[in-house]
Amino acid sequence: MPGGSYLDTSFLWKLYVVEERSNEAVAWFNVYSGDVFVSELSDVEMATSLHRRFLNFEANEIYADYLNDRNVGSLKWLNVNASVYALAVERAKKYSGRFGLRSLDTIQLAIALHYEAEEMATYDDRLALAARAAGLKLSL
After folding, report:
1. Among 18, 22, 42, 59, which is most buried by a count of CB atoms within 10 Å?
2. Residues spanned by the domain of 47
3. CATH at 79
4. Is-above-0.90 flag for pTM?
């Protein structure tokens, strides 16, 4: 990958669902000049979150918008492989107790590190602290 910014789901969500700080996320996304990355895990988390919050037809429409952005290349897609999971275990041992990271956040961090992102865009305070400790810049 090298470079670019990896978006965790807390950030990605704000690009598609209007809520507090959505304007900030959209403004950043519209001016950011580097590559922006999401992953297979982003797909799962977006689908799950959308279908928990919205009726099926609304969730499907929003998810289709997300997939369209992925398909046209606005969001570059990364797969999750065994190396990512091994790195997630390593980072869980190092950061879960220190920052209170949850499993999926640890995997999000591992994806960004495995693919050598320069930055991480997140609205999750614990993940932001761990990302910074791991050497990533924060996009916001």
Report:
1. 42
2. 5-138
3. 3.40.50.1010
4. yes
